[in-house]
Amino acid sequence: MQPIEERLELVRFKVDKRPHIRVHTEACRDCDLTPCVYVCPAGLFEILGGEMHFSYEHCLECGTCYVACERKAIEWDYPRGGWGVSFRAS
Ligand code: SF4
Ligand code: SF4
Predict the structure, then answer these.
(1) Which key words tag this protein in UniProt (predicted)?
(2) What is the pLDDT of residue 90?
């Protein structure tokens, strides 16, 4: 089986200017376990200098972060039609 890093390189994105995920980062400041950082397969959540940084551009649309965030700090939706993950080579 291919390693996950190699598989992720096969994913193509069509990035919408309008984010389909928003993180209310004020809730992140005292979130001790920060599960989103560990569960996102694309590594899109990062704590830098004590602040949450999130980028939606290479989101795999799996929904895991939304389920993992018990504080409900994540507003989640699929990208608009025609945007997001657009092509998967095998
Ligand atoms: S799990 Fe939720 S509250 Fe905690 S750091 Fe991630 S987005 Fe913020
Ligand atoms: S939906 Fe999946 S890939 Fe996208 S930000 Fe959440 S955990 Fe990461």
Answers:
(1) Electron transport, Iron, Iron-sulfur, Metal-binding, Transport
(2) 59
Pocket test for ligand 2, best of 60, 67, 77 (most atoms within 8 A of CB): 60
45 CA from centroid of ligand 2 (Å): 9
The answer to whether 84 and 16 have CB atoms below 8 angstroms apart is: yes
Domain assignment of residue 23, yes or no: yes
In tens, the pLDDT along 50-87 reads 899 999 999 999 999 999 999 999 999 999 999 998 76
pLDDT score, position 10:
83
Q: Which domain holds residue 37?
A: 19-77
